[in-house]
Amino acid sequence: MIWMQQKKNYLSMILTIAALVSIWALVDYLTSGRPPILSGYYKLNIILLCINIILAVSLNLINGFTGQFSIGHAGFMAVGAYLSAVFTQKIMIVETIAAVTGLDPTGDVARTAGLLIAVFIGAMAAAVVGVVIGMPTLRLRGDYLAIATLGMGEIIRGLVLNIEYVGGAAGMSGITQLSSWTTVFILTIISVVVIKNFINSTHGRACISIRENEIAAETMGINTTKYKVLAFSIGAFFAGLAGALHAHYFYTIQPGTFNFLKSFDILVMVVLGGMGSLTGSIIAAILLTFLSAALQDLAALRMVIYALLLILIMIFRPQGLMGNKELSFATFGSLFGKKSSTGGGEQRDGSQSN
Amino acid sequence: MEVFLQQLINGLSLGSIYALIALGYTMVYGIIRLINFAHGDIYMVGAYVGYFAATQGFGFIPSLLIAMVTCAVLGVVIERLAYKPLRNAARLAALITAIGVSLFLEYGGMMIVTPQVRTFPDILSNKIYPLMGGVQISFREIIIFVVTITLMLLLQFIVHKTKTGKAMRAVSHDNEAAMLMGINVDNTISATFAIGSALAAAAGVLVGVYYNQIEPLMGIMPGLKAFVAAVLGGIGIIPGAVTGAMLLGITETMVSGYIDSMYKDPVAFIILILILIVKPTGLFGKNVREKV
Fold first, then answer.
1. CB contact burial B246-283 (16+ within 10 A = b; e otherwise)
2. Domain residues of chain B, as ranges?
């Protein structure tokens, strides 16, 4: 029985890898020709899509899986974006690497190494901020926590706004475009895989138990504070990573980019996809990124649609598109294959899928 | 000392406006345990209704009343359409809906009235009265104090002396028991929304008159600040909201006067987080332990 299970897992893993590689190759082919088949505008939105996936999945870890309602995700994004930009623009990390190793500072190797270091530092800083803020605020519950995280996001933005070193209200501009489709795509996959594996680990199960019932979890010997802060800081880490990638693709960052409307944007993705479903978040991120690209010129209309989406989802389908189910090859398999007695693709447990 | 007194007057007028908004927050939270994120945007709608009334030639008092009535109706409509279906759902579902309603009012409003900043017509004189030692108070500030105090006394009267007020207190104390006693809970909740929204609308018109300009996103920050004020005083407690709002208003103007106005927003949120950490139930709140 076990080897059959394993065989199935290998199969879906191979299928997943094949699918990811073909997506990468397809987008790379479509955007890198001279002239590219898809214009820079499409490429920009595809990059944005990957960043949104990281943001949605990391927020889902906090909101959906651990059940701690945070609406200050853009604050962590700001920390990652600003700190990584400081490292590449002020400390000149790429040039330093080139000088130390003798590589060409305009070459891909030095640029990618510089980017990765800056991104990692930005993400770590966001995680540290997450721990510092999470320790006191995660004692709060439900809507109080929501307000505290919102306030925290606004505090971070307010502080950045007042630091002249990073440009104050004007923000930083002329950031070197170090992110590329390949790095962004690979980091997105890594983020999703790390979060998925975290959720399926002992620690992740502890987080889910906190969501289900905090008091019961505590009674069962789970250190709820520790796991809440852990989930919060992992979420913050990936938000910082997304922010750093954002800064190094879109040339400029401003405090206004990371206001709480950005946090709400991410929240809409998580809620639409289903709190507690990683694939749901990914699907919602894809849908909403395309929606907002289509409504680029009608910013107000876009927000009205977002607002109506939020209200209607909450009234008619509060669990979101996917609930807490995951979509995987196994789901497709059982949909098209024999209908098992347990009801086809209705897997309740994320650990079974993929 | 002069700066201090001047900032104190400014702080009290800002605090009065926060107080009017915070009252609606605190009443709604007290009765259905919902942070009504859209409340700040009802204040914005109030400012716009007041603006349109004033440009049609209405005076200050009629504009104020028109705005209050319109927003009372709007508050009830929002409650019936968006919040009522979720009354028995998870609290977070209602909170997310409130965020949705807030975004809807902001950007729906933006589509209707365009994002441009509008100048509020001069419907009140801008006379300035010197007090002792160079400290000044303007006629508009006096009007803000008068309107705020009148509305608060009226609210106090409604909550403590009328049947509706009694029903509101009963429902906020125990929803089900109130229902068993024959109180129409739905109507009581609607009445709470109507009163809270009317107060927010009054704040909107006052801000329009005081600062002379309005725009569709003007409700976001005051809404959040008023919420901070409500939490500061102990959410669900009416005198707490007023105290918290005054404290917050004064703190903000002091920060602007003595440090830098760029720091007033972060300071307000730092106060919020400190209060939540040290005494989550606020200054006037009692600690309630969760039972298993």
1. bbbbbbbbbbbbeeeeebbbbbbbbbbbebbeeebbbb
2. 2-221
